[in-house]
Write a structure and sequence with these properties.
elongated, 7 helices, mainly alpha, 3 strands
């Protein structure tokens, strides 16, 4: 069995990020805040992390309202990702793994709903014999997996 991580291993996570900012742009425009998602993408390209929504709101002349930021995070995390392309070497590996009969397991962290949406968008579930997602709020250290035997032994998604 081969175990791989999802984000930035099988596909580029930045593709998911930009897909999320496109969903934010659609939502924000409907709320009368056009350009917000576009500014988020610009800030991300500039290397901003962790405060993208706050800085984007300020950049488009809006106050940083915690309720609005929570909505933006929800839109981002719950959007249907527009990601369909695996990294070429990952696609080749998955094809060969299928032909060779090697079992594949995927691990990933982050919000469960977001990770499930990524797996669905990339059509990865049929390719994996096991997919392990942490429960909400659970953190998994891949460098010390024996400490997390309850995680590894639970039923796959």
């Amino acid at each position: 069995m081969v175990v791989v991580d999802l984000d930035d291993t099988l596909y580029l996570e930045r593709d998911y990020v930009f897909s999320g900012f496109a969903a934010v742009e659609e939502w924000a425009t409907a709320q009368g805040i056009p350009g917000l998602g576009l500014r988020c993408a610009e800030l991300f390209r500039e290397g901003v992390r962790g405060s993208v929504f706050d800085q984007a709101l300020i950049a488009v002349g809006q106050p940083v309202d915690r309720g609005v930021v929570k909505e933006l995070v929800d839109v981002y995390r719950k959007h249907r990702p527009d990601i369909t392309q695996l990294e070429p070497d990952a696609a080749d590996f998955l094809e060969r793994r299928s032909e060779d009969g090697v079992r594949l397991a995927m691990i990933t962290g982050g919000p469960v709903e977001s990770q499930k949406a990524k797996v669905a968008a990339l059509q990865l579930a049929p390719r994996s014999s096991r997919l392990s997602l942490p429960e909400a709020g659970e953190r998994i250290s891949t460098s010390h997996t024996t400490e997390h035997s309850s995680f590894w032994n639970r039923q796959p998604v």
